[in-house]
Amino acid sequence: MERQTGRRFPVRAGFGPVISLVIGLVISLVLAMPAPPAGAQGLAQGLGLGAIARITGPVELRSENGALVLELPLTQPVPHRVQLLDAPMRAVIDFHQIDWTGLDPGTLPLSAPLTGLRLGQSGGGWSRMVLELAEPMDFETVALRSDPASGAARLHLRLVPVSAGAFAARLRPQANDSAAAATATRPALGMRPTVVVLDPGHGGIDPGAEREGLRESDLMLTFSRELAELLRRQGDFEVVLTREEDVFVSLEARIRVARQAGADVFLSLHADALADGGASGTTIYTLADEASEAAAAALAERHDRADLLGGGVDLSDSDDLVAGVLMDIARTETRPVTDRLSEALLAAITSEGLATHRRPRQEAAFSVLKAPDIPSILIEVGFMSSPRDLANLQDPEWRGRMAQALMTGLLNWVDDEAQRSPLRRR
Q1: Do residues 268 and 399 both lie within one domain?
Q2: Helix, strand, coil shares of the chain as percentages rounded to 5?
Q3: CATH number of the domain bearing residue 255
Q4: From start to end of 106-236, where are the E strands?
Q5: Average pLDDT, stretch 402-412?
Q6: Whole-number Å distance between alpha carbons of 236 and 135
Q7: Average pLDDT across the chain, whole number
Q8: Where are the beta strands (DSSP E) in 210-315?
């Protein structure tokens, strides 16, 4: 009995947000990843996805009624990712990692619409196969099936013809890859302005918490604008907001803004309310599969559910094992940086004499924090269900102190990361 870890992608003109998320977002988030550290390799190996795979038999490459089909037999399943590129048109499949020994591309048939096939290494521990195309095509099926008894795997890939417009539409997410490549080569933190993306929670049809005629979305937009202005005046920051007015922005779109901006930091700002009214004080959340307490789990569920109001896609519902491993590889490297960021922010808030929650650092599965390669923090600036916090959130002087504390925390964090950077220590 085979276990399938891939997905079938329906192909149609325009594609739509689900296709863009499942294929485009996963590809763009991991395209520029470096080789995984030892901890990530251990995780992948524990899932049977860590060692180098090898070709175990004949590779099939054939045309079927205008479609292009590839069957690749492997000793074991491996993480993989796909993308389309233009000039010339080609389909690219990256694997982490395959030994191509014994596979001669010259022995494979190059019937239409295939004009060429190349194999090689793409860096960072990734192996690459490039299919050169004579006409616009897109991935209809990318499925990796494994046999639990033998551990062997087989990649089934099917490309189908599409219009030139549909092909071009699938290329647009590659702009994110260009931004990621530019980010990878830019100077280290502390040697350039730090790019901070501020994410005022909720907005538009999703007002968030509401108390005494006030809406969380409005309070956080006001605070985000004030914090952005303070950071910009300081001179060491470039600031981007995920929304500048009272509009709905999906979780996927918020993450996309951060990636397009080349964010060094992503801060999602909230002021929620809990039914029991007992929570108060600033709380800093980082991403984890399991919440640190029941209230954190409830908040995460509420934030993610709110995204469905605008037709967004909840990133937490992932059933693709391979995509999960790719994300974990990146997060393993990002997590310590995120932890240091949360510690720096909390220390600055405390030094400013601002009240914090009884457990000021917590973890929860907030989907908005799931960009794997950007240090991401969700800050409950206060709780609207607390009379004291609600009064503070309306007080310009208190908000100014909180903004100052967050700026101080960011500056301290940047300084610490700069000292850790090998580029800075040369």
Answers
A1: yes
A2: 40, 25, 35
A3: 3.40.630.40
A4: 114-123, 126-133, 137-146, 153-161, 194-200, 210-211, 214-215
A5: 97
A6: 47
A7: 75
A8: 210-211, 214-215, 237-241, 265-270, 282-287
Task: Please check the confidence at residue 399 and state whether its pLDDT lies above 70.
Answer: yes
48 and 87 part of one domain: yes
Contacts of 251 (CB under 8 A, 6+ apart): 304, 307, 312, 313, 314, 315, 367, 368
Q: Residue 388: is its pLDDT beyond 50? A: yes
What's the one-letter identity of residue 6?
G
Biggest CA-to-CA distance, the chain: 74
Q: Write out pLDDT tens, residues 310-328.
A: 333 333 333 333 334 434 5
pTM over 0.70, yes/no: no
Q: Quote the radius of gyration of the chain (alpha carbons, Å).
A: 23
Give the residue numbers spanning the domain of 289. 187-425
Distance CA(95)–CA(210), nearest Å, equals 48
- Given 119, 148, 177, the domain boundary residue is 177
243: its two tokens:
């929304």
Residue-wise pLDDT for 87-139, tens only, equals 899 999 988 789 998 888 888 888 889 999 999 887 667 789 999 999 999 99
